[in-house]
Amino acid sequence: FKGRAEVSEADLKQLEAALIGADIGARTAAEIVARVRQAAEERRETDLASVRRAIEDELVGILERATRRPRQVPDGEPLVLMLVGVNGTGKTTTIGKLTQYYRAQGRTVLLCAADTFRAAATEQLQAWGQRTGAEVIHQKPGADPSAVLYDALAAAKARKSDFVIVDTAGRLHTKSNLMQELAKMRRTAGRLIPGAPHEVLLVLDATTGQNGLQQARQFAQAADVTGLIVTKLDGTARGGIVIAIARELGLPVRYVGTGEQADDFVPFEPRRFVEAIVG
Amino acid sequence: TLTDRLQRVFKSLRGEARLTEANMAETLEEIRLALLEADVAQSIVEAVVADIRVKALGQEVMAALSPAEQVIKILRDELLDVLGGGEAARVNVKSSAPPAVVLMAGLQGSGKTTTSAKLAAWLKKRGHRPMLVSVDVYRPAAREQLALLAEQVPAPLFAGAELVAQAGAALGTAVVLDLAKAARRDAVRSGCDVLIVDTAGRLHIDEPLMAEMRQLKQALAPGEILFVADAMVGQDAVHSAAEFHRQLSFTGVVLTKLDGDTRGGAALSIRRVTGQPIKFIGTSERLDGLEVFHPDRIVGRILG
Ligand SMILES: Nc1nc2c(ncn2[C@@H]2O[C@H](COP(=O)(O)OP(=O)(O)OP(=O)(O)O)[C@@H](O)[C@H]2O)c(=O)[nH]1
Ligand SMILES: Nc1nc2c(ncn2[C@@H]2O[C@H](COP(=O)(O)OP(=O)(O)OP(=O)(O)O)[C@@H](O)[C@H]2O)c(=O)[nH]1
Ligand SMILES: [Mg+2]
Ligand SMILES: [Mg+2]
């Protein structure tokens, strides 16, 4: 008697339910559980702990195979990051956190208030700039976002800033004119600094359901996303939709938001993320 | 579409003329997957599928419909039944002592501030004189955001700048409650019959902030508490909605950002787990982007 509980049908159903509850998706959850069950039977490792670990390994594997990386930054140029995503996911707040994170490493950061549309968007970013020690390049409400971006990159080059972080307006991926606006911003950036924006981070709310995959597809197409940030993981949602995004689009999660303050921010750890899902 | 998938299920069962135990299993599995993919919560999907199984089994074949179409009809009726009637879009702005108070609640980023302004525009159109106030003293530039939107409606805003300035660095529940009560007094003074209170986004598991919400409710005795939720929320919808309802007994739901292409299964989850009506949907970022909720439209989206 090994003292290891054998996995039961009920256990497998419960594990599958945990995956679905984490927004992994019904079909993906079924596939993973089926594959793990078969492998466990073949290896004769059918105790619950091993099966649970095997599911975690599957998920970690998917996340680690997402190998998209930022673009190369030419020597002496600022690294340009652009945050994009649908409305309300936490882009502006995350820029405050990124600024804190880089400043703590002794880097200089310049911010670009390219959300010229939403009420008080510039004021919100300016407050974060003050809080974390970064200047904010901005223009009047209604200005062309690409014009603000141009100003910011020119300023960053002149000041030899280490980083430029660009805030963009929230936008639904179904609005083609708004997605084209992003494409135009990318082209503008690339003209001024080779390879810019070097990192385009899609900011996803951890509570997002299956629509998150469609969001990622559309933003990847319009803005050439290089990675994801998952916010609001301090809630009860688990952000499992990033598994499908990793698998289909090869996009890795780079950072995670865990609250509303400047230091509620960590680099992504696949194993830890997955353990919270499989529980 | 789900209809196509069900047609294929029935075809593969070689010309079945009626709904039986045998052809039901595969059909119900397709329905289960479709509802989960549309972000309906697991527990709700289970209940719906169980109901459909009972209603569908042994049904007399309807002359005009194929078995697949018949099941779809049963499913449609079931979803419409869960989502409930159209008595939904009345905002309770009657009050024995004016102003009537509408309190906005919800998770971070769901659309409360924007919806507060949209609601003011909505009520103005219907002959009311709404005043807006933001008691979000936490999020940078939150009160500025509502102030700008109030100008656009246009509707009077209680800014409470002195109250916030006096609080200094001690921005918390005390000044939140002071602001809310001062706004109500100002609404009476200004002849406004409705006060819309925008609140900070908060997690349902954040005890101090949920306690603040309960205290706001107690202080204001709102006739309407609207839970503002993002239509693209997935399985978590049941957890946040249930907890907000448990603590606040909210009276209605606004589902925002339905101008996207999310299937909107959260509508079913939230309605089913709280029993509260979805009163409005948000359909754009503009002030006129607030519409009455129609169950058949969201059912159409969920069934995709
Ligand atoms: N709990 C929690 N809240 C967060 C997190 N990140 C952001 N928020 C909150 O989410 C809300 C929206 O954040 P914003 O930064 O304004 O989001 P945004 O994407 O810039 O919004 P738009 O510009 O309007 O599209 C705010 O209340 C933030 O404080 C997080 O990691 N955890
Ligand atoms: N497309 C679209 N965008 C919306 C809708 N409702 C709100 N938004 C946008 O969603 C984002 C968040 O809206 P807010 O009103 O700031 O959300 P909130 O709940 O007040 O956020 P917190 O106060 O941080 O919790 C903004 O960019 C809004 O313009 C809607 O119905 N459709
Ligand atoms: Mg923003
Ligand atoms: Mg707000």
Description:
The complex is a heterodimer of chains A (279) and B (304). Chain A has helices at residues 9-21, 26-43, 48-64, 91-104, 121-132, 145-159, 176-192, 211-223, 241-249, 270-278; strands at 79-84, 109-113, 135-137, 163-167, 199-205, 227-231, 253-257, 265-267. By secondary structure, chain A is α/β, with parallel strands linked by helices. In chain A, strands 3-2-4-1-5-6-7-8 form an 8-stranded mixed sheet, sandwiched between helices. In chain A, α5 (121-132) links the parallel β2 and β3 (135-137). Chain B is α/β, with parallel strands linked by helices. In chain B, 50% of the residues lie in helices and 12% in strands. Chain B contains 12 helices and 8 strands. In chain B, β7 and β8 form a beta hairpin. In chain B, α2 (21-37) runs antiparallel to α3, α4 (67-83) crosses α12 (295-303) and α10 (237-248) runs parallel beside α11. Chain B is elongated. In chain B, 51% of the residues are buried. The mean pLDDT of chain B is 92. Classes of the chains: A alpha/beta (279), B alpha/beta (304). The complex binds guanosine-5'-triphosphate (2 copies) and magnesium ion (MG) (2 copies).
Q: Which two chains touch over the largest interface? A: A-B, 44 and 44 residues
SSE-based structural type of chain A: alpha/beta
Major sheet details of chain B: 8 strands, mixed
Principal-axes geometry of chain B comes out as elongated
Strand order of the largest sheet of chain A: 3-2-4-1-5-6-7-8
Which oligomerization state do the chains in this entry correspond to? heterodimer
Total strand segments of chain B: 8
Low-confidence stretches of chain A: none
Helix content bin of chain A: 40-55%
Structural class of chain B: alpha/beta
Chain-averaged pLDDT of chain A: 96
Low-confidence stretches of chain B: none
- Count all strands of chain A and give the number: 8
Q: Number of helical runs of chain B?
A: 12
Shape of chain A: elongated
The ordered string of helix (H) and strand (E) elements of chain B is HHHHEHEHEHHEHEHEHEEH
Mean pLDDT figure of chain B: 92
Total helices of chain A: the number is: 10
Sketch the topology of chain A as an H/E string, one letter per element: HHHEHEHEHEHEHEHEEH
Gyration radius over CA of chain B: 22 Å
Distance between the termini of chain B: 6 Å
